[in-house]
Amino acid sequence: MELANKLEQLINEYLCESDEKSIQHILFSIPEHKGLFYILDSFKLNLKSSKPLSLSILFTFNHNTRQGKFMVDKITRTNCFDGFDVIKNRRNLMYSKDFGNNKPKIIEMAKHIISSLFPEVNTNAIGVELKRIEGWHRLEGQNIK
């Protein structure tokens, strides 16, 4: 739950009022990490003015490895993604869902997914990318407290 609170803090700290109205989607990218552990690698906000808010969770894995098979099994056994659209191919498993303009609902769902799937996540490994209208701002490798 600590990580989810930090993510909410980042959203509130780095988005100004005009940004909040133009969020297109939030993407969490979770790559394979040593053994059977996964670290939340990046938190991206792509800001565009014409589309509704949506939450997309993208899992990338190599299904030929033991870790990849474990990851697919772990993800498919959870009920975190009930009501989400699913896209799956040889290397990717993606869940997404539109939330209209309900930013609090997106934050609530993101907290639920992270705390359910990644209780062991290393907050020191968080990289944050915020794409704003005026360009990219990158915060990476910081210990977010």
Please, could you describe this protein's structure?
The chain is an alpha/beta fold and 145 residues long. The chain has one domain (2-140). The chain is built from four helices and seven strands; from the N terminus they run H-H-E-E-E-H-E-E-H-E-E. A seven-stranded mixed sheet has the order 4-5-3-1-2-6-7, covered by helices on one side. Helix 1 runs antiparallel to helix 4 (103-117). The longest helix has 15 residues, at 103-117.
Mean pLDDT: 56
Shape: globular
Estimated share of beta-strand residues: 25-35%
What is the alpha-carbon Rg in Å?
15 Å
Unreliable stretches (pLDDT < 50, length at least 5) are 17-25, 29-50, 122-145
- Summarize the amount of helix as a percent range: 25-40%
* Structural domain tally: 1
**Distance between termini?**
14 Å
Sheet with most strands: 7 strands, mixed
Summing up helix and strand content along with how strands pair, one would put the structural category as: alpha/beta
